[in-house]
Amino acid sequence: MPSNPLPVLASQAAGKHSAKVTHLTDRIGWIVGLALVVALVYWLMRQGWQWRRTLQGGLPELPQAPDRTGPPLLELHGRYHGSTTAGQWLDRIVVHGLGVRSKVRLALTEDGLEVDRTGAPGFFVPTAALRGARLDKAIAGKVLTEGGLLVVTWEHGGTLVDSGFRAEHAADHGVWAERITALSGDRAVAFSDSRPAGPRDGGRSDSTQQHDKEGAR
């Protein structure tokens, strides 16, 4: 046993202190590194949106509803999930606020489709611009079960656009798709399925369960 234990105790205390400092330094390094990665991802996403805005700069301003329209044929509340080039579920359109997901109220009249959004610009699709509607499961990177989305195809500035909506009640989608397609008449178009593979279900079971789980998020 050393005659003077103080130097030994001091050395042990210094070692413990050094270990704590080293551990803290490593933790700070990890946090800084993670923050830099998150910042880089955010910057890349922002640059991607800016690039898309530049490419889509020729798309005209969104049409607005006329002062007077006919009585609503159908109405629903739900979510707007984005718009893409028609038939291309990942080719997101971001100009004029079309890339912003939001709560939505839809009203269909003989004059067209009114899209009233919360926290984002609303727009109006005249009947002459409607090109049909269908039940789908994916748009702008959002994937649900089959029939979980109502996708409306419309023409704007010479471009065919798909806009995706999800009603509070999945059972409403079928009626909406039929009525919009009927209003489109011989202008209605159809697209081949280029979306990710998944279960194809009849009836309302899976899509309704998905809506019940997710609610109106």
Description:
The protein is α+β, with helices and mostly antiparallel strands and 217 residues long. Helix content is 34%, strand content 28%. Strands 1, 2, 3, 4, 5, 6, 9 and 10 form an eight-stranded antiparallel sheet that branches. The protein has a two-stranded antiparallel sheet with strand order 7-8.
Provide a concise account of the structure shown:
With 217 residues, the protein is α+β, with helices and mostly antiparallel strands.
Number of strands: 10
Average residue-wise pLDDT: 80
Q: Topology as H/E string?
A: HEEEEEEEEEEHH
Bin the strand percentage: 25-35%
Derived from helix and strand composition plus strand pairing, the structural class reads alpha+beta
User: Please, how many helices?
Assistant: 3
Q: Into which percent range does the helicity of residues fall?
A: 25-40%
Radius of gyration based on Cα positions = 27 Å
Query: Would you identify the regions where 5 or more consecutive residues have pLDDT less than 50?
Result: 198-217
Distance between the termini: 70 Å
Q: Tell me about the largest β-sheet.
A: 8 strands, antiparallel
Sum up the overall morphology in one term.
elongated
Secondary-structure blueprint:
Blueprint: H1 6-55, E1 74-85, E2 92-93, E3 102-109, E4 112-117, E5 123-126, E6 130-136, E7 138-139, E8 142-143, E9 149-156, E10 159-167, H2 172-184, H3 205-214
